[in-house]
Each structure stands twice: as structure tokens, then as C-alpha cells.
Amino acid sequence: MENALIKEGFPPEQIQKLCEVHVSVFDATLKKYRSPKHMPGHPVNTYMEENKYAKKLVKSISPLFKKIVKTKEKGVELLSRQLHELKQIELHFQRKENQLFPKLEKEEFSGPSKVMWGKHDEIRNRLKIIEKALQDGDFKQVKDTGKELISAIRNMIFMEEKILFPTSLRKLKETDWIEIRKEEPEIGYAWTKPGNLWDINIARTKQQETIKTETVPSNITSDTVHIDEGNLTFKQINLMLKHLPVDVTFVDENDKVRYYSQGKERIFPRSPAIIGRDVQNCHPPKSVHIVNKIVESFRKKEKDVAEFWLTMNDRFIHIRYFAVYDDAGEYKGVIEVSQDVTDIRALDGERRLLDW
């Protein structure tokens, strides 16, 4: 129903606000459905195992929010530790956003990435509010927002197990799940690791061969590529991009993600599932209008650079978008470059080559 509304142009933000209402309308019916079960190793099984741990964690944290106003400082340390553990749910969300949602979008089921991603952000925001309130000693805020957080996570688990996962199992092919499973370690797991009963080794090999055949350009007959200034092999180009101290992502003129670099230390999570994905679906719903604004300004040549910076995990991150044009001046896409510049900002004085 929500997917149909989105296709008709209904704003995802409005659907997001009514998401819990929609679920509550069908609550009695949905509760009759059994949660999906798959053998250990299948992505759905891993999601479900993470949900089991999340339920236990939420159950233990919930009373702490109620007591925090009375006990004040006494409960802060315990609650802080529990919240730190709860924040691993971020890995659960990131795998959905970067691996499961792209597969569903290819099946023209974009509701989860446009609505559920927004619900993820609501949970993330509440966690930030609680952390700050704890630091500031605003225990009423901690209690009030904590109650909202517990409810939001429980609702999310219900929506996953009664709607998202069953629907995904109906819509996605076995090969889709194989690809998702193969890509999972790219992001990681929350509280648990997948089992090994779901044997994907043979299917994985076949899938890799298919992907390799599809991704190598048919017009390339030599391993050497002539570029404007020099000649490099495919291997050299790949190694060069992998060793750059930045995250690089390329989006083509049709707003499709075509490449991201595989550096040693990633700043933002990426997964092979985003290749071919609309760039708009790679961002939280609340920021999509800004993404569209940047792309349109590049396409119209009103601007050719956009830059942003933020602090993340005590590191200063610089993000830049560069417009790409061919020799004829035609718009050909966007390069996104993200870099941790914390240490660069701290540089002072001089250090010359001979000082090394």
C-alpha cells in the first residue's frame, strides 16, 4: 500500500509519519503471521538473530529509562554502557540500507528504502538526543526520549519480521540472497555472526563468474588502457584507486552509481549492491532533495563543486562533490570524495622531503 502511494507521488516523509498507524491498523492480522525462518547463514536468519539480541537488550534498558529521574547519577554509567551496546544496531540498519534495499528497488519495491530508512534515522536521532541529555544531566529528557526509543525499536522489529522480511523472501531470487550474503562482511554484524549451514560456496563461485563477465567492458581487448597522460593496466588503475587516502564514488549522467573505491579504511559504508542503484536511494529520505539540487546544479552548469564537513566519531570529515564533463562540455556525472582530514587540520610549521 505504501509502495503504491509512493509511485503515485505521495511524499515519503508523510508516509513515514503514518507508518506506525498503518501497521497498527493491520496489527491483529500481522500478529497471526509467523516470522520467517531460514537456516543459519541465510541473511534473513542473521537479521532475525540480531533482532533476538535487540529484544533482550531493549527489555533490559527499558527499566533504566524509568528509574533515571529518581536515581540520577547512579544509573548513568550503567545506562551509558547499555546504550553503547545498543548502538550496534547501526550495523543492522546499514546492511538493510546498502544491501537489502537495493535488491528490492530492482524489483520496483522502493517503499522500504524511502520509508523505513527514515524510521532508521528517527532511531539514530533519538540515540543522539539521549547521549547528549545524559552528558548535560537532563534526566527528564533521557526518560522521555528513552520511552520513544524503546517503542521505535520494538515497532521496527515488528515491521521487519512481519512485513519486510516475508515480502523480501517473496520478491527476491536465490541469487539475490547469495549476493547479499557475500557482501555482508563489507559492513559487519550486530552482536552476532552468521552460521554456516546455508552453503553458498558453489553458488557464490557461479555468481562471481557472472558478475565478472558482465562488468568487464566488451570493447576492451587488451589489459592496458591508454589514458590522457600515460598507459595503465586494469590492475594498476584498481590498485591506485584502492590506495588513495580518500573514499571515491562515481555516479553517471543517469544518476546511477557506477563505482566506489575499496580503500583500507572506509568512512561511509558501501556495498556492491549499490552498483547500478539510483543515487537518490543511497541517501536518507530527508536529504534526497539536497542530492537532487546538487545534481541539477551540476547538470545545468550553475555550479561544479559542492562541499560539506562534519564531525563523526571525533574525526573531522570533509566531503566534496565534483561535476564531471566530457571534452564537449556534456554532463557525465558526479565524483564524490570523502576524506578524514583530522590529522591534516592539526598540521603546523613545515616538514620538507629532506626531513623524512
Structure description:
By secondary structure, the protein is an alpha+beta fold. It has two domains: about 1-185, Four Helix Bundle (Hemerythrin (Met), subunit A), CATH 1.20.120; about 225-345, PAS domain (Beta-Lactamase). It has helices at about 1-5, 10-25, 25-30, 45-70, 75-85, 90-105, 110-135, 140-170, 175-185, 200-215, 235-240, 290-300, 340-345; strands spanning about 225, 230-235, 245-250, 255-260, 305-310, 315-325, 330-340. Strands 4-3-7-6-5 form a five-stranded antiparallel beta sheet. Helix 4 runs antiparallel to helix 5 and helix 4 (about 45-70) runs antiparallel to helix 8. It is globular. About 25% of the residues are buried.
Give descriptors for this structure.
356 residues, alpha+beta, Four Helix Bundle (Hemerythrin (Met), subunit A), Beta-Lactamase, five-stranded antiparallel sheet, two-stranded antiparallel sheet, 7 strands, 55% helix
Beta-strand segment tally: 7
In DSSP terms (H or I, runs of 4 or more residues), the helix count works out at: 13
What is CATH's topology name of the largest domain?
A: Four Helix Bundle (Hemerythrin (Met), subunit A)
> What percent of residues adopt helix (DSSP H or I)?
55-70%
Briefly characterize the structure.
The chain has 356 residues and is an alpha+beta fold.
